Amino acid sequence: MDSALIPFIAAGLAFATVLVAGLGMAGYFGGAGQAARLRERVAGGPTGRSVESRPLFDGLRRAVSGAFERLGSKVAPKDADEADRTRKALVQAGLRSPGAVIKFQGTKVALALCLSSLFLVVRSFTLSDLSVSLTCFVAVGLAALGVYGPEVWLRRRTTKRRLAVANELPDALDLLVVCVESGMGLDQALDRVCHEMRTSGPVISAEFKLLTLELRAGKGRGDALRGLSERVGLDDLNSLTSLLVQADIFGISVGRTLRVYSDAMRTKRSQRAEEKAAKLPVLLLLPLIGFILPALFIAIMGPAVILFIDVFARIKM
User: Fold this and answer.
1) What number is the average pLDDT over the span 134-153?
2) Where does residue 237 rank: exposed (0-12), middle (13-18), buried (19+ CB within 10 A)?
3) Are 214 and 192 in contact (CB under 8 A)?
4) Which of 57, 49, 54 has the alpha carbon at shortest distance from 24?
5) Which band of pLDDT confidence, cut at 50, 70 and 90, is reported for residue 156?
6) Rounded to an integer, what is the distance from CA 272 to the centroid of its chain?
7) CA 280 to chain centre
8) Could you write out the DSSP letters of every residue in the chain?
9) Own/partner pairs, 219-223, CB within 8 angstroms, 24+ separation
10) Rounded CA gap, 11 and 282, in Å?
11) DSSP string, 116-134
12) CB-based burial of residue 310 (10 Å sphere; 0-12 exposed, 13-18 middle, 19+ buried)?
């Protein structure tokens, strides 16, 4: 490739980068318009915000969303199994909009173009002596980072959400046991738990709310519980839903089943805490060796080394 064409390519990619970044920022700051429309739809009328007071970037946000969807539709996986895996990962991360898969793929392509073009712009202005082969290598590496970076972010978001569910589930289960043993049905108990834990456990409350909505819509209890376990992907919740499905099939007391599982979860939580406490000395070993011991050696041996240096200097004199 001729090195004289690199500035023109960089200028074109810089224009695309600025355009995509501007559209992305407009879409981010214009997200309040969708929430306002949803509140108006739920309330059945305007909620105090007139049409003139809607965000100025509402149309631009829709344009950005459409651009990402069009871009993602061109690069979206054609294999149904791969698309289902991506959709399942997005659902477990809490991203459940209908076009989430296509927008996710479009975001990866946009990030790849933005990172590589930004590097080419920097190279054309400040690193002009960089070789063409190294330029291509770094640009391809940044494009790969833009493609695989969202995958890492998605896994971290999924892990964080599962951890939140794992921390909130024991309290929700205890409250569910109290509600069931007080005479409520399972559906009423789930609705009560999701109402009571809106502040202390928002993630598990949202999942239980969706479960109750599915049950009210006429979905079978077993299918709704299996859908709950698939949406979260947590082993403890999978075991709980399996127990509830079996109790519903065989006619076992739900209250007794929940109490037994609550005791088992409490024991497992204490064992998990003991395991983390046992791992703590091993985890502290690396900071101890890398940071504390060198400073300690310098503080203890430093004066002696300085004294030896002075003694040897006098001997030579």
Assistant:
1) 86
2) buried
3) no
4) 57
5) very high
6) 23
7) 26
8) --GGGHHHHHHHHHHHHHHHHHHHHHHHHTTHHHHHHHHHHHHTS--S--STTS-TTHHHHHHHHHHHHHHHHHHS---HHHHHHHHHHHHHTT---TTHHHHHHHHHHHHHHHHHHHHHHHHHHH-TTS-HHHHHHHHHHHHHHHHHHHHHHHHHHHHHHHHHHHHHHHHHHHHHHHHHHTT--HHHHHHHHHHHTTTT-HHHHHHHHHHHHHHHTT--HHHHHHHHHHHH--HHHHHHHHHHHHHHHHT--HHHHHHHHHHHHHHHHHHHHHHHHHHHHHHHHHHIIIIIHHHHHHHHHHHHHHHHHHHHHHHH-
9) 221/186, 221/187, 221/245, 221/248, 222/248, 222/249
10) 52
11) HHHHHHHHHHH-TTS-HHH
12) exposed
Contact 107, 68 (CB under 8 A): yes
Query: Tokens 């819509």 appear where?
Result: 217
- Round to whole Å and give the CA distance between 211 and 145: 37
CA distance 197 to 33: 27
Q: Measured between alpha carbons, how far is 270 from 28 in angstroms, rounded to an integer? A: 41
Give DSSP secondary structure letters for 37-94: HHHHHHHTS--S--STTS-TTHHHHHHHHHHHHHHHHHHS---HHHHHHHHHHHHHTT
Tokens at 216, concatenated: 């009210």
Residue-wise pLDDT tens digits, 270-311: 888 888 888 888 888 888 888 888 888 888 888 888 888 888
